[in-house]
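Q: Joint fold for the lines below.
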Amino acid sequence: MKVGIIGFGKMGMLHGALLNSIPGVELVGIADTTKLVLKAFKSVLPNIKYFAEYQDLIDQCQLDAVIITTPTFSHVPIATYAAEKNIHFFVEKPLSLNVEQAEALYRIVLEKNVKAMIGFCARYYTSFIKAKEILINNQLGKIISVKAENYLSDVMRKEKGWRFNKNLSGGGVVIDYSVHMIDLLYWFFGMAKQVSAQTKQIYSESVEDEVNARFTFGNGIEAELNSSWSNPNYRKTYMKIEISGELGSMSVTDQTFSINYNDGSFEKLLYPDLYKGYYIDIAGVNYSAQMQKFNDYIMKDIPIDADITSGIAVQRMVHAIYQSSEYQKPIEITDRSI
Amino acid sequence: MIEIDSIILGDNQFFGVNHMSQDKGRETYEKFKNLDEIKKTIYFALDNGVKGIFFSTHPAIYQITNMIRADKYLKNNLSFYVNVPYIIKYVQMLNEMGMVKTIKNILTGKNIFFNLLYLMQTGGNIITNNFLKITNRLIDVELNPFHDLNVKAVFLHNGLADLALGYKMTNVISNFYNYIQKKYKLIPAFGTLNYPLFCDLLKDAGIQESLIMTSVNKKGLFMNPSREAVEKSIKINKHTLLAMGTLASGILQPEEAYEYVASLKKVKHIVVGLSSKNHADETFKLIRKYIK
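A: Joint structure:
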Protein backbone atom coordinates (compact mmCIF):
# COMPACT_ATOMS: atom_id res chain seq x y z
CA MET A 1 0.00 0.00 0.00
CA LYS A 2 1.40 3.39 -1.02
CA VAL A 3 0.53 6.02 1.58
CA GLY A 4 0.84 9.78 1.88
CA ILE A 5 0.51 11.87 5.02
CA ILE A 6 -1.20 15.24 4.84
CA GLY A 7 -0.49 17.42 7.88
CA PHE A 8 2.74 16.40 9.57
CA GLY A 9 2.07 17.44 13.16
CA LYS A 10 2.27 15.05 16.06
CA MET A 11 -0.62 12.82 14.95
CA GLY A 12 0.55 12.74 11.32
CA MET A 13 4.02 11.87 12.51
CA LEU A 14 2.70 9.09 14.75
CA HIS A 15 0.40 7.51 12.17
CA GLY A 16 3.17 7.70 9.57
CA ALA A 17 5.61 5.88 11.85
CA LEU A 18 3.03 3.20 12.74
CA LEU A 19 2.05 2.58 9.12
CA ASN A 20 5.67 2.56 8.01
CA SER A 21 6.23 -0.32 10.45
CA ILE A 22 3.57 -2.52 8.86
CA PRO A 23 5.05 -4.88 6.28
CA GLY A 24 3.87 -3.98 2.80
CA VAL A 25 3.21 -0.32 3.55
CA GLU A 26 5.31 2.24 1.74
CA LEU A 27 5.30 5.82 2.96
CA VAL A 28 5.72 7.75 -0.26
CA GLY A 29 5.09 11.39 0.47
CA ILE A 30 4.33 14.01 3.09
CA ALA A 31 2.46 17.27 2.59
CA ASP A 32 2.58 20.10 5.09
CA THR A 33 2.15 23.82 4.69
CA THR A 34 5.14 24.68 6.86
CA LYS A 35 8.46 24.60 5.06
CA LEU A 36 10.50 24.30 8.24
CA VAL A 37 8.84 20.99 9.09
CA LEU A 38 9.36 19.63 5.59
CA LYS A 39 13.02 20.67 5.42
CA ALA A 40 13.77 19.27 8.86
CA PHE A 41 12.36 15.88 7.94
CA LYS A 42 13.86 15.87 4.49
CA SER A 43 17.27 16.05 6.15
CA VAL A 44 16.66 12.71 7.89
CA LEU A 45 14.17 11.01 5.56
CA PRO A 46 15.54 11.87 2.13
CA ASN A 47 13.72 9.06 0.28
CA ILE A 48 10.28 10.49 0.90
CA LYS A 49 8.78 13.18 -1.34
CA TYR A 50 7.73 16.43 0.30
CA PHE A 51 5.01 18.82 -0.80
CA ALA A 52 3.70 22.14 0.39
CA GLU A 53 0.35 21.53 -1.34
CA TYR A 54 -1.64 18.38 -0.64
CA GLN A 55 -2.99 18.41 -4.20
CA ASP A 56 0.54 17.86 -5.51
CA LEU A 57 1.07 14.89 -3.20
CA ILE A 58 -2.19 13.31 -4.36
CA ASP A 59 -1.65 14.13 -8.05
CA GLN A 60 1.96 13.06 -8.31
CA CYS A 61 2.43 10.01 -6.08
CA GLN A 62 0.01 7.30 -7.32
CA LEU A 63 -1.17 6.72 -3.77
CA ASP A 64 -3.52 4.03 -2.53
CA ALA A 65 -4.41 5.96 0.60
CA VAL A 66 -3.82 9.19 2.49
CA ILE A 67 -3.75 10.00 6.18
CA ILE A 68 -5.37 13.38 6.86
CA THR A 69 -4.10 14.92 10.08
CA THR A 70 -4.61 18.60 9.45
CA PRO A 71 -6.66 21.12 11.47
CA THR A 72 -10.38 20.33 11.36
CA PHE A 73 -11.41 22.99 8.84
CA SER A 74 -9.40 21.31 6.09
CA HIS A 75 -10.51 17.70 6.74
CA VAL A 76 -13.44 17.66 4.34
CA PRO A 77 -11.83 19.66 1.48
CA ILE A 78 -8.79 17.35 1.53
CA ALA A 79 -10.83 14.15 1.93
CA THR A 80 -13.08 15.28 -0.94
CA TYR A 81 -10.08 15.90 -3.18
CA ALA A 82 -8.66 12.44 -2.34
CA ALA A 83 -11.99 10.64 -2.81
CA GLU A 84 -12.55 12.31 -6.17
CA LYS A 85 -9.22 10.84 -7.29
CA ASN A 86 -10.31 7.41 -5.99
CA ILE A 87 -7.90 7.45 -3.08
CA HIS A 88 -8.88 5.87 0.23
CA PHE A 89 -8.43 7.99 3.32
CA PHE A 90 -8.07 7.98 7.07
CA VAL A 91 -9.12 11.28 8.60
CA GLU A 92 -8.54 12.32 12.18
CA LYS A 93 -11.48 13.15 14.38
CA PRO A 94 -13.61 15.22 14.19
CA LEU A 95 -14.65 14.42 10.64
CA SER A 96 -15.84 17.92 9.85
CA LEU A 97 -16.80 21.38 11.10
CA ASN A 98 -20.50 20.61 10.78
CA VAL A 99 -23.00 17.95 9.72
CA GLU A 100 -23.65 19.40 6.23
CA GLN A 101 -19.97 19.20 5.34
CA ALA A 102 -19.81 15.57 6.50
CA GLU A 103 -22.87 14.60 4.49
CA ALA A 104 -21.52 16.18 1.32
CA LEU A 105 -18.33 14.14 1.74
CA TYR A 106 -20.36 11.00 2.34
CA ARG A 107 -22.07 11.34 -1.03
CA ILE A 108 -18.71 11.52 -2.82
CA VAL A 109 -17.33 8.57 -0.85
CA LEU A 110 -20.33 6.49 -1.93
CA GLU A 111 -20.18 7.64 -5.52
CA LYS A 112 -16.46 6.94 -5.86
CA ASN A 113 -16.62 3.80 -3.72
CA VAL A 114 -13.54 4.73 -1.68
CA LYS A 115 -12.81 3.48 1.81
CA ALA A 116 -12.85 6.00 4.63
CA MET A 117 -11.87 5.59 8.27
CA ILE A 118 -12.34 8.14 11.06
CA GLY A 119 -9.74 8.56 13.83
CA PHE A 120 -11.85 7.38 16.75
CA CYS A 121 -8.89 5.91 18.58
CA ALA A 122 -10.74 5.19 21.86
CA ARG A 123 -12.38 2.21 20.20
CA TYR A 124 -9.05 0.39 20.22
CA TYR A 125 -8.42 0.40 23.96
CA THR A 126 -8.69 -3.23 25.08
CA SER A 127 -10.82 -2.15 28.04
CA PHE A 128 -13.49 -0.56 25.83
CA ILE A 129 -13.37 -3.45 23.36
CA LYS A 130 -14.16 -5.74 26.29
CA ALA A 131 -17.01 -3.48 27.38
CA LYS A 132 -18.45 -3.57 23.87
CA GLU A 133 -18.37 -7.38 23.95
CA ILE A 134 -20.22 -7.40 27.26
CA LEU A 135 -22.93 -5.21 25.71
CA ILE A 136 -23.16 -7.24 22.51
CA ASN A 137 -23.61 -10.41 24.58
CA ASN A 138 -26.18 -8.60 26.70
CA GLN A 139 -24.37 -9.72 29.86
CA LEU A 140 -25.69 -6.81 31.93
CA GLY A 141 -29.30 -7.34 30.87
CA LYS A 142 -31.46 -4.27 30.37
CA ILE A 143 -29.36 -1.13 30.80
CA ILE A 144 -30.50 1.12 33.63
CA SER A 145 -27.98 3.94 33.69
CA VAL A 146 -24.87 5.17 31.91
CA LYS A 147 -22.42 7.74 33.19
CA ALA A 148 -19.45 8.90 31.12
CA GLU A 149 -16.53 11.13 32.02
CA ASN A 150 -13.72 12.43 29.84
CA TYR A 151 -11.12 14.76 31.31
CA LEU A 152 -7.75 16.29 30.57
CA SER A 153 -5.73 19.27 31.80
CA ASP A 154 -4.94 20.54 28.34
CA VAL A 155 -6.35 24.06 28.30
CA MET A 156 -5.43 25.75 31.57
CA ARG A 157 -5.31 29.33 30.36
CA LYS A 158 -6.47 31.44 27.46
CA GLU A 159 -4.79 29.96 24.42
CA LYS A 160 -4.22 30.85 20.81
CA GLY A 161 -4.27 28.73 17.68
CA TRP A 162 -6.81 27.19 15.32
CA ARG A 163 -8.40 25.01 18.02
CA PHE A 164 -9.65 28.13 19.74
CA ASN A 165 -11.08 29.73 16.63
CA LYS A 166 -14.58 28.34 16.15
CA ASN A 167 -14.52 28.92 12.39
CA LEU A 168 -11.48 26.68 12.07
CA SER A 169 -12.24 24.08 14.72
CA GLY A 170 -16.04 23.88 14.72
CA GLY A 171 -16.03 24.34 18.50
CA GLY A 172 -14.07 23.55 21.64
CA VAL A 173 -13.84 20.60 23.98
CA VAL A 174 -16.99 18.89 22.65
CA ILE A 175 -15.95 18.56 19.01
CA ASP A 176 -12.22 18.27 19.63
CA TYR A 177 -11.92 16.10 22.73
CA SER A 178 -15.22 14.82 24.20
CA VAL A 179 -15.91 13.53 20.69
CA HIS A 180 -13.98 10.41 21.72
CA MET A 181 -16.43 9.66 24.51
CA ILE A 182 -19.41 10.63 22.34
CA ASP A 183 -18.10 8.15 19.80
CA LEU A 184 -17.88 5.42 22.46
CA LEU A 185 -21.48 6.13 23.48
CA TYR A 186 -22.50 5.88 19.82
CA TRP A 187 -20.47 2.68 19.40
CA PHE A 188 -22.07 1.15 22.49
CA PHE A 189 -25.68 2.35 22.21
CA GLY A 190 -26.21 3.55 18.66
CA MET A 191 -27.54 6.91 17.56
CA ALA A 192 -28.94 9.20 20.26
CA LYS A 193 -32.52 10.36 19.78
CA GLN A 194 -32.39 13.38 22.02
CA VAL A 195 -29.81 15.45 23.85
CA SER A 196 -29.95 18.09 26.49
CA ALA A 197 -26.70 19.89 27.20
CA GLN A 198 -24.93 22.81 28.80
CA THR A 199 -21.49 23.98 27.77
CA LYS A 200 -19.28 26.32 29.70
CA GLN A 201 -16.32 28.52 28.92
CA ILE A 202 -13.55 28.65 31.49
CA TYR A 203 -10.43 29.95 29.81
CA SER A 204 -11.33 30.08 26.12
CA GLU A 205 -13.09 33.06 24.62
CA SER A 206 -14.79 31.73 21.52
CA VAL A 207 -15.11 28.01 22.30
CA GLU A 208 -16.38 25.93 25.24
CA ASP A 209 -14.06 24.23 27.75
CA GLU A 210 -16.56 22.05 29.60
CA VAL A 211 -19.74 20.16 28.84
CA ASN A 212 -22.54 18.35 30.62
CA ALA A 213 -24.84 16.42 28.31
CA ARG A 214 -27.66 13.94 28.77
CA PHE A 215 -28.41 11.65 25.84
CA THR A 216 -31.49 9.52 25.31
CA PHE A 217 -30.87 6.60 22.98
CA GLY A 218 -33.37 4.72 20.81
CA ASN A 219 -33.84 1.88 23.23
CA GLY A 220 -34.64 4.31 26.05
CA ILE A 221 -31.14 4.16 27.52
CA GLU A 222 -30.11 7.44 29.11
CA ALA A 223 -26.48 8.47 29.35
CA GLU A 224 -24.91 11.40 31.10
CA LEU A 225 -21.62 12.83 29.86
CA ASN A 226 -19.32 15.17 31.75
CA SER A 227 -16.20 16.32 29.99
CA SER A 228 -13.59 19.03 30.27
CA TRP A 229 -10.18 19.75 28.83
CA SER A 230 -9.53 22.20 31.65
CA ASN A 231 -9.55 19.76 34.56
CA PRO A 232 -6.31 20.25 36.53
CA ASN A 233 -6.43 16.71 37.97
CA TYR A 234 -5.73 14.88 34.74
CA ARG A 235 -2.27 15.26 33.28
CA LYS A 236 -3.10 12.53 30.79
CA THR A 237 -6.42 11.82 29.14
CA TYR A 238 -8.98 10.12 31.39
CA MET A 239 -12.01 8.31 30.05
CA LYS A 240 -14.46 6.50 32.28
CA ILE A 241 -17.80 4.95 31.54
CA GLU A 242 -20.03 3.34 34.15
CA ILE A 243 -22.86 1.17 32.90
CA SER A 244 -25.45 -0.39 35.18
CA GLY A 245 -27.88 -3.03 34.06
CA GLU A 246 -30.42 -5.39 35.56
CA LEU A 247 -27.82 -8.14 35.98
CA GLY A 248 -24.84 -6.09 37.18
CA SER A 249 -22.67 -3.12 36.44
CA MET A 250 -19.34 -2.33 34.87
CA SER A 251 -16.89 0.49 35.26
CA VAL A 252 -14.44 0.92 32.42
CA THR A 253 -11.67 3.44 31.88
CA ASP A 254 -9.08 3.70 29.11
CA GLN A 255 -6.80 1.73 31.46
CA THR A 256 -9.02 -0.54 33.56
CA PHE A 257 -12.02 -2.81 33.33
CA SER A 258 -14.20 -4.05 36.16
CA ILE A 259 -17.56 -5.78 36.20
CA ASN A 260 -19.70 -6.90 39.12
CA TYR A 261 -22.68 -9.18 38.63
CA ASN A 262 -25.60 -9.29 41.01
CA ASP A 263 -24.88 -12.97 41.69
CA GLY A 264 -21.61 -11.92 43.32
CA SER A 265 -19.27 -12.89 40.50
CA PHE A 266 -16.91 -10.24 39.19
CA GLU A 267 -13.91 -9.54 37.03
CA LYS A 268 -11.35 -6.79 37.59
CA LEU A 269 -8.58 -6.09 35.13
CA LEU A 270 -5.86 -3.50 35.47
CA TYR A 271 -3.78 -1.93 32.74
CA PRO A 272 -1.06 -4.61 32.79
CA ASP A 273 -3.74 -7.30 32.47
CA LEU A 274 -5.28 -5.54 29.49
CA TYR A 275 -2.07 -4.73 27.63
CA LYS A 276 -1.59 -6.65 24.43
CA GLY A 277 1.67 -6.51 22.48
CA TYR A 278 1.60 -5.21 18.92
CA TYR A 279 3.87 -5.02 15.89
CA ILE A 280 5.10 -1.75 17.35
CA ASP A 281 4.10 0.48 20.28
CA ILE A 282 5.09 4.12 19.89
CA ALA A 283 2.48 6.11 21.82
CA GLY A 284 0.02 3.47 22.98
CA VAL A 285 -1.05 0.22 21.33
CA ASN A 286 -4.55 1.52 20.59
CA TYR A 287 -2.96 3.70 17.89
CA SER A 288 -1.04 0.67 16.58
CA ALA A 289 -4.28 -1.30 16.41
CA GLN A 290 -5.98 1.58 14.61
CA MET A 291 -3.37 1.71 11.83
CA GLN A 292 -3.35 -2.08 11.55
CA LYS A 293 -7.14 -1.92 11.00
CA PHE A 294 -6.77 0.80 8.39
CA ASN A 295 -4.17 -1.26 6.53
CA ASP A 296 -6.34 -4.40 6.70
CA TYR A 297 -9.39 -2.46 5.54
CA ILE A 298 -7.60 -1.15 2.46
CA MET A 299 -5.44 -4.15 1.64
CA LYS A 300 -7.51 -7.13 2.80
CA ASP A 301 -11.01 -5.68 2.64
CA ILE A 302 -11.59 -6.47 6.32
CA PRO A 303 -14.44 -4.14 7.33
CA ILE A 304 -13.99 -1.55 10.07
CA ASP A 305 -16.67 0.02 12.21
CA ALA A 306 -15.16 3.50 12.62
CA ASP A 307 -16.32 4.28 9.11
CA ILE A 308 -17.79 7.44 7.61
CA THR A 309 -21.32 6.68 8.81
CA SER A 310 -19.94 6.65 12.36
CA GLY A 311 -18.21 9.94 11.62
CA ILE A 312 -21.48 11.55 10.51
CA ALA A 313 -23.52 10.08 13.38
CA VAL A 314 -21.04 11.37 15.95
CA GLN A 315 -21.00 14.73 14.18
CA ARG A 316 -24.80 14.88 14.56
CA MET A 317 -24.57 14.15 18.27
CA VAL A 318 -21.87 16.81 18.68
CA HIS A 319 -23.91 19.46 16.93
CA ALA A 320 -27.06 18.55 18.83
CA ILE A 321 -25.07 19.32 21.99
CA TYR A 322 -24.15 22.73 20.59
CA GLN A 323 -27.74 23.46 19.62
CA SER A 324 -29.12 22.33 22.95
CA SER A 325 -26.65 24.50 24.78
CA GLU A 326 -27.36 27.50 22.57
CA TYR A 327 -31.17 27.28 22.65
CA GLN A 328 -31.27 25.95 26.21
CA LYS A 329 -33.66 23.16 25.37
CA PRO A 330 -33.55 19.46 24.54
CA ILE A 331 -32.82 18.76 20.87
CA GLU A 332 -34.29 15.85 18.94
CA ILE A 333 -31.75 14.17 16.68
CA THR A 334 -33.56 12.97 13.61
CA ASP A 335 -32.16 9.85 12.03
CA ARG A 336 -31.99 10.77 8.40
CA SER A 337 -30.51 7.30 7.79
CA ILE A 338 -27.75 8.53 5.55
CA MET B 1 28.86 -5.78 28.67
CA ILE B 2 28.72 -2.04 29.35
CA GLU B 3 29.54 -1.13 32.97
CA ILE B 4 26.67 0.51 34.83
CA ASP B 5 25.12 0.24 38.30
CA SER B 6 23.13 -2.94 38.80
CA ILE B 7 20.26 -1.23 40.65
CA ILE B 8 19.22 2.24 39.54
CA LEU B 9 16.59 4.31 41.33
CA GLY B 10 13.88 5.47 38.92
CA ASP B 11 12.19 8.86 39.03
CA ASN B 12 8.56 8.17 38.06
CA GLN B 13 7.36 8.54 41.64
CA PHE B 14 8.91 12.01 41.95
CA PHE B 15 6.90 13.30 39.00
CA GLY B 16 3.61 11.54 39.59
CA VAL B 17 3.93 9.05 36.75
CA ASN B 18 1.90 5.95 37.42
CA HIS B 19 0.82 3.82 34.48
CA MET B 20 -1.84 2.09 36.49
CA SER B 21 -3.60 4.96 38.17
CA GLN B 22 -3.54 8.71 37.67
CA ASP B 23 -4.90 9.06 41.21
CA LYS B 24 -1.96 7.17 42.71
CA GLY B 25 0.36 9.18 40.48
CA ARG B 26 -1.07 12.41 41.85
CA GLU B 27 -0.68 11.16 45.43
CA THR B 28 3.01 10.43 45.04
CA TYR B 29 3.47 13.66 43.10
CA GLU B 30 1.96 15.62 46.00
CA LYS B 31 4.26 13.83 48.41
CA PHE B 32 7.38 14.53 46.39
CA LYS B 33 6.51 18.15 45.69
CA ASN B 34 8.47 18.65 48.85
CA LEU B 35 12.18 18.53 47.92
CA ASP B 36 13.05 17.17 51.36
CA GLU B 37 11.02 14.05 50.61
CA ILE B 38 13.00 13.52 47.41
CA LYS B 39 16.23 14.05 49.30
CA LYS B 40 15.21 11.55 51.98
CA THR B 41 14.36 8.96 49.35
CA ILE B 42 17.70 9.42 47.60
CA TYR B 43 19.56 9.15 50.93
CA PHE B 44 17.61 6.03 51.75
CA ALA B 45 18.60 4.48 48.42
CA LEU B 46 22.26 5.42 49.00
CA ASP B 47 22.17 3.90 52.49
CA ASN B 48 21.00 0.72 50.82
CA GLY B 49 23.89 0.76 48.39
CA VAL B 50 21.94 2.10 45.41
CA LYS B 51 24.09 4.79 43.85
CA GLY B 52 22.60 5.03 40.40
CA ILE B 53 19.71 7.39 39.84
CA PHE B 54 17.64 7.77 36.71
CA PHE B 55 16.17 11.12 35.75
CA SER B 56 13.97 12.41 33.02
CA THR B 57 14.43 16.07 32.26
CA HIS B 58 11.13 17.08 33.81
CA PRO B 59 10.54 20.85 34.04
CA ALA B 60 11.17 20.60 37.80
CA ILE B 61 14.55 18.91 37.32
CA TYR B 62 16.62 22.05 38.05
CA GLN B 63 15.25 22.21 41.59
CA ILE B 64 16.32 18.63 42.19
CA THR B 65 19.77 18.86 40.61
CA ASN B 66 20.43 22.19 42.36
CA MET B 67 19.53 20.49 45.62
CA ILE B 68 21.91 17.61 44.86
CA ARG B 69 24.76 19.93 43.80
CA ALA B 70 24.38 21.79 47.10
CA ASP B 71 24.78 18.54 49.04
CA LYS B 72 28.39 17.33 48.74
CA TYR B 73 27.66 13.81 49.88
CA LEU B 74 24.97 13.33 47.27
CA LYS B 75 27.00 15.06 44.59
CA ASN B 76 30.03 12.86 45.21
CA ASN B 77 28.23 9.56 45.56
CA LEU B 78 25.48 9.52 42.98
CA SER B 79 25.73 8.40 39.36
CA PHE B 80 23.18 9.83 36.98
CA TYR B 81 21.38 8.16 34.13
CA VAL B 82 19.59 10.82 32.15
CA ASN B 83 16.62 10.30 29.85
CA VAL B 84 16.21 12.94 27.11
CA PRO B 85 14.11 14.66 26.01
CA TYR B 86 11.16 14.94 28.40
CA ILE B 87 8.53 14.27 25.75
CA ILE B 88 5.40 15.54 27.52
CA LYS B 89 6.90 19.02 27.68
CA TYR B 90 7.29 19.12 23.90
CA VAL B 91 3.91 17.55 23.24
CA GLN B 92 2.41 20.35 25.32
CA MET B 93 4.38 22.89 23.32
CA LEU B 94 3.19 21.29 20.08
CA ASN B 95 -0.40 21.49 21.28
CA GLU B 96 -0.04 25.06 22.36
CA MET B 97 2.00 26.61 19.59
CA GLY B 98 2.30 24.13 16.73
CA MET B 99 5.34 22.54 15.14
CA VAL B 100 7.09 25.59 13.73
CA LYS B 101 7.03 27.64 16.89
CA THR B 102 8.07 24.62 18.94
CA ILE B 103 11.11 24.01 16.74
CA LYS B 104 11.96 27.72 16.76
CA ASN B 105 11.63 27.81 20.51
CA ILE B 106 13.96 24.86 20.90
CA LEU B 107 16.49 26.55 18.65
CA THR B 108 16.32 30.01 20.10
CA GLY B 109 15.59 29.12 23.69
CA LYS B 110 12.62 31.43 23.96
CA ASN B 111 10.76 28.97 26.12
CA ILE B 112 10.95 29.13 29.89
CA PHE B 113 12.29 25.60 30.00
CA PHE B 114 15.49 26.60 28.32
CA ASN B 115 18.35 27.94 30.20
CA LEU B 116 19.60 31.38 29.29
CA LEU B 117 23.11 30.65 30.39
CA TYR B 118 23.37 27.89 27.85
CA LEU B 119 22.23 30.20 25.09
CA MET B 120 24.82 32.77 25.99
CA GLN B 121 27.47 30.09 25.75
CA THR B 122 26.39 29.01 22.30
CA GLY B 123 25.56 32.39 20.84
CA GLY B 124 21.84 31.72 20.69
CA ASN B 125 19.89 32.41 17.63
CA ILE B 126 20.91 29.82 15.05
CA ILE B 127 17.95 28.66 13.00
CA THR B 128 18.60 25.48 11.11
CA ASN B 129 16.54 23.19 8.94
CA ASN B 130 18.67 20.22 9.81
CA PHE B 131 16.80 17.80 12.01
CA LEU B 132 19.98 16.32 13.47
CA LYS B 133 21.22 19.76 14.51
CA ILE B 134 17.86 20.42 16.12
CA THR B 135 18.16 17.14 18.01
CA ASN B 136 21.68 17.91 19.18
CA ARG B 137 20.62 21.34 20.33
CA LEU B 138 17.80 19.73 22.24
CA ILE B 139 20.19 17.29 23.89
CA ASP B 140 22.47 20.15 25.01
CA VAL B 141 19.57 22.02 26.51
CA GLU B 142 18.21 18.94 28.23
CA LEU B 143 21.56 17.93 29.71
CA ASN B 144 22.30 21.36 31.08
CA PRO B 145 20.56 20.76 34.45
CA PHE B 146 23.09 17.98 35.10
CA HIS B 147 26.24 20.07 34.77
CA ASP B 148 28.98 19.19 37.30
CA LEU B 149 27.23 15.96 38.21
CA ASN B 150 28.51 12.46 37.59
CA VAL B 151 26.43 11.49 34.57
CA LYS B 152 27.15 7.98 33.33
CA ALA B 153 24.77 7.41 30.48
CA VAL B 154 22.33 9.42 28.40
CA PHE B 155 19.23 7.64 27.13
CA LEU B 156 17.21 8.66 24.13
CA HIS B 157 13.65 8.61 25.50
CA ASN B 158 11.66 5.61 24.28
CA GLY B 159 9.00 7.91 22.81
CA LEU B 160 11.51 9.44 20.43
CA ALA B 161 13.62 6.32 19.93
CA ASP B 162 10.52 4.33 18.95
CA LEU B 163 9.34 7.12 16.65
CA ALA B 164 12.75 6.97 14.93
CA LEU B 165 12.27 3.19 14.82
CA GLY B 166 8.92 3.59 13.05
CA TYR B 167 10.59 5.64 10.32
CA LYS B 168 13.74 3.46 10.39
CA MET B 169 15.80 6.62 10.88
CA THR B 170 19.21 5.02 11.33
CA ASN B 171 20.79 8.46 10.92
CA VAL B 172 18.96 9.81 13.98
CA ILE B 173 20.11 6.81 16.01
CA SER B 174 23.76 6.98 14.95
CA ASN B 175 23.79 10.78 15.33
CA PHE B 176 22.61 10.47 18.93
CA TYR B 177 25.07 7.68 19.64
CA ASN B 178 28.03 9.59 18.25
CA TYR B 179 27.04 12.92 19.76
CA ILE B 180 26.78 11.54 23.30
CA GLN B 181 30.00 9.59 22.92
CA LYS B 182 32.08 12.30 21.26
CA LYS B 183 30.84 15.55 22.76
CA TYR B 184 29.99 14.34 26.26
CA LYS B 185 32.20 11.22 26.52
CA LEU B 186 29.26 9.43 28.10
CA ILE B 187 27.56 6.11 27.42
CA PRO B 188 24.89 6.56 24.74
CA ALA B 189 21.78 4.53 25.45
CA PHE B 190 18.26 4.01 24.14
CA GLY B 191 14.83 3.40 25.59
CA THR B 192 12.38 1.26 23.64
CA LEU B 193 9.13 -0.63 24.03
CA ASN B 194 9.97 -2.65 20.93
CA TYR B 195 13.19 -4.45 21.77
CA PRO B 196 13.44 -6.93 18.87
CA LEU B 197 12.71 -4.33 16.18
CA PHE B 198 14.99 -1.83 17.89
CA CYS B 199 17.89 -4.30 17.84
CA ASP B 200 17.42 -4.57 14.08
CA LEU B 201 17.49 -0.77 13.76
CA LEU B 202 20.72 -0.57 15.78
CA LYS B 203 22.26 -3.19 13.55
CA ASP B 204 21.27 -1.17 10.48
CA ALA B 205 22.81 1.90 12.13
CA GLY B 206 26.07 -0.05 12.54
CA ILE B 207 25.78 -0.33 16.34
CA GLN B 208 26.48 -3.87 17.51
CA GLU B 209 26.54 -3.29 21.23
CA SER B 210 24.72 -0.63 23.18
CA LEU B 211 22.92 0.05 26.42
CA ILE B 212 19.17 -0.39 26.05
CA MET B 213 16.44 0.23 28.57
CA THR B 214 13.33 -1.79 27.89
CA SER B 215 10.37 -3.35 29.68
CA VAL B 216 11.03 -6.78 31.11
CA ASN B 217 8.25 -8.35 33.16
CA LYS B 218 6.30 -11.54 33.51
CA LYS B 219 3.09 -9.80 32.41
CA GLY B 220 4.49 -8.82 29.04
CA LEU B 221 3.53 -5.20 29.75
CA PHE B 222 5.12 -2.86 27.17
CA MET B 223 6.89 -5.83 25.59
CA ASN B 224 6.31 -5.74 21.84
CA PRO B 225 5.48 -7.56 19.72
CA SER B 226 5.16 -10.13 22.53
CA ARG B 227 6.92 -11.26 25.70
CA GLU B 228 8.17 -14.37 23.93
CA ALA B 229 9.66 -12.40 21.04
CA VAL B 230 11.45 -10.05 23.46
CA GLU B 231 12.83 -13.00 25.47
CA LYS B 232 14.18 -14.57 22.31
CA SER B 233 15.72 -11.29 21.19
CA ILE B 234 17.39 -10.79 24.59
CA LYS B 235 19.00 -14.20 24.19
CA ILE B 236 20.50 -13.57 20.78
CA ASN B 237 21.57 -9.90 21.04
CA LYS B 238 24.71 -8.57 22.70
CA HIS B 239 23.27 -5.37 24.14
CA THR B 240 23.49 -4.49 27.82
CA LEU B 241 19.95 -4.34 29.15
CA LEU B 242 18.53 -2.05 31.75
CA ALA B 243 15.22 -3.62 32.68
CA MET B 244 12.34 -1.26 33.43
CA GLY B 245 8.77 -2.00 34.43
CA THR B 246 9.85 -5.23 36.14
CA LEU B 247 6.89 -5.10 38.54
CA ALA B 248 4.51 -4.38 35.63
CA SER B 249 3.24 -1.15 37.21
CA GLY B 250 3.08 -2.84 40.62
CA ILE B 251 0.77 -5.66 39.64
CA LEU B 252 3.41 -8.37 40.22
CA GLN B 253 4.71 -9.45 43.59
CA PRO B 254 8.43 -8.56 43.86
CA GLU B 255 9.58 -12.15 44.44
CA GLU B 256 7.73 -13.45 41.40
CA ALA B 257 8.83 -10.45 39.35
CA TYR B 258 12.56 -10.69 40.02
CA GLU B 259 12.59 -14.45 39.76
CA TYR B 260 11.29 -14.01 36.24
CA VAL B 261 13.86 -11.31 35.38
CA ALA B 262 16.64 -13.55 36.73
CA SER B 263 15.39 -16.44 34.60
CA LEU B 264 16.34 -14.43 31.51
CA LYS B 265 20.00 -14.72 32.59
CA LYS B 266 21.26 -11.80 30.51
CA VAL B 267 19.41 -9.11 32.45
CA LYS B 268 21.77 -7.76 35.13
CA HIS B 269 20.56 -4.21 35.56
CA ILE B 270 17.26 -2.92 36.86
CA VAL B 271 15.73 0.51 37.22
CA VAL B 272 13.27 0.47 40.08
CA GLY B 273 10.85 2.97 41.60
CA LEU B 274 10.60 3.71 45.29
CA SER B 275 7.37 5.36 46.34
CA SER B 276 7.56 4.31 49.98
CA LYS B 277 10.25 2.98 52.31
CA ASN B 278 8.07 0.12 53.50
CA HIS B 279 8.75 -2.09 50.53
CA ALA B 280 12.18 -0.75 49.70
CA ASP B 281 14.30 -2.98 51.97
CA GLU B 282 12.58 -6.04 50.63
CA THR B 283 12.81 -4.86 47.02
CA PHE B 284 16.55 -4.22 47.16
CA LYS B 285 17.20 -7.51 48.97
CA LEU B 286 15.18 -9.47 46.44
CA ILE B 287 16.86 -7.84 43.48
CA ARG B 288 20.26 -8.66 44.96
CA LYS B 289 19.14 -12.21 45.67
CA TYR B 290 18.05 -12.84 42.11
CA ILE B 291 20.14 -10.56 39.95
CA LYS B 292 23.82 -11.35 40.28
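Q: Anything notable?
A: The mean pLDDT of chain A is 95. The longest helix of chain A spans residues 308-327.
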